[in-house]
Amino acid sequence: MIDENAFFREATLRLTGSLQIEAGLHACFQYLAEHLPADVVYLQRNEPELGAMRLVARADADGGVRMDRLVAYTDEARVALDGLVEAVQGGELPVLIVNRPREEPLTRSLEEALGEVASSAMILRLVVEDRVVGALALLAEGDDRFTEEHARLYATLREPCFVAMSNTMEHAEVVRLKNRLADDNRYLSRELVRHLGGTIVGADFGLRHVMHQVRQVAPTESPVVLLGETGTGKEVIAHAIHLGSPRRDGPFVPVNCGAIPEALVDSELFGHERGAFTGATAKRRGRFERADGGTILLDEIGEMPMEAQVRLLRVLQDSVIERVGGTKGVRLNVRVIAATHQDLAERVRQGRFREDLWFRLNVFPLAIPPLRERRGDIPAFVDFFLERKARDLKLRARPTLAPGAIETLMSYDWPGNVRELENVLERAAILHRDRPLRFDDLGRVGASPSGPAAGFDPALLDLDQVVSQHIVRVLGMSGGKVHGPGGAAELLGVNASTLRYRMEKLGIPFKKDASDPV
């Protein structure tokens, strides 16, 4: 008679000896067959919401195989399963012996579905909190093959079988998510390159000096701070740095620090453990963990709360993050690029930004000039955006410009920079379908951004026209952004929903789900 402890130890070592459940189950089966009647063994998980069992793996003398097959319960089998649950709650031995398989609905439905010959079975119930979550079914051809002594030995495998199944399912989920994340990252990288046309407009002209600096700093690991007004293209430059670095095959994760509610900053950046707070039903990786091996862009870093700045400083110093509710540090390999339209040195003097964090970040500041300081790039931007809008708006032909239109665009000061130019072109393409594009509402030639719009005479316009032109002008100043800090609603001092309603009423187009791009 074999000792239970020895049986448990040897079977467990074989079962859990591989992350590949089919290999572990086959090694375990070989050991079981030395001491118990055994022709084949199945590991299965219950799926009560589907009314079925999911076969996870199968092993016999010839080897093991991974499975993902659902076998629906018959009505008889469902009644029998309910009886198993009652038996578990009653504290009985967690092994069901079926020596007359044709008379037992659970084994009969399994064997018929799998094409197995009629076999005696021992079903080891895997239980968590009085729930039968799965089973290990050992089959031996013929009747009356198993005894109570067999069941006593077999019952010792309940915990290792549950652990092996859980590890297998979690490992499979991790692999699935990792593959999906890799696919998503490749897709997003392709989309960003497609979105940018594979080039940076102005790289050889207005941004020539900036791109020279990008080529210098990209191969290094140094932090970079991108300085520039809203809408100048900071995310585009950050991505160019990433693509020019040894991390180009790793993830590029942009984060708008100003768009994250203060209460969620830590969870969003550093992740959280299950149960860390109300609603934290599962462990969640933060943006830093997702950027491991790549680059993270912290846009509008000047908006980051002081408490989060302390934790960010530790990440920069030690390359370690700690999830909310966690007790262990997680070591990461992430390059940090920060971006802001604010004067961080002034915010340091005001006590609104940590001096030590500013010194840590400000290794390689890179200033991106506003569009009004590189007007020579405007024709190239117009050409680029018109090509894109023709595709995005599914226009029959690429829009053309009316005579004098480019001069109007060149004379405007573009307070919203490149983003405003893109939005103006998109709006014109919508309003002037199949007609040359005009921009008479941009402003008088040579006027400052705050000057009156060309053709704007309040005495000759009704109220709706006055309101419409004012909203359009403010949208230009906000780069098309309606909601949030710096959005048109904030500038106008109205509720964002009220502004959207008024825009719809006046026929002013807007992106309902527009984010705040760089």
Description:
This protein is α/β, with parallel strands linked by helices and 518 residues long. It folds into 3 domains: 166 residues, 2-Layer Sandwich (Beta-Lactamase), CATH 3.30.450.40; 174 residues, Rossmann fold (3-Layer(aba) Sandwich), CATH 3.40.50.300; 132 residues, Helicase, Ruva Protein, domain 3. The protein is built from 19 helices and 13 strands. Strand 10 and strand 11 form a beta hairpin. Helix 11 crosses helix 13. The longest helix has 38 residues. The chain is elongated and about 95 Å long.
What is this entry, summarized?
The protein is α/β, with parallel strands linked by helices and 518 residues long. The chain has helices at residues 4-15, 21-35, 75-89, 105-114, 148-155, 158-195, 208-217, 234-243, 265-270, 287-290, 306-318, 344-349, 355-361, 378-392, 405-411, 417-431, 463-477, 488-492, 496-506, and strands spanning 40-47, 52-60, 63-72, 95-98, 119-128, 131-141, 224-227, 252-256, 295-299, 320-321, 330-331, 335-340, 364-367.
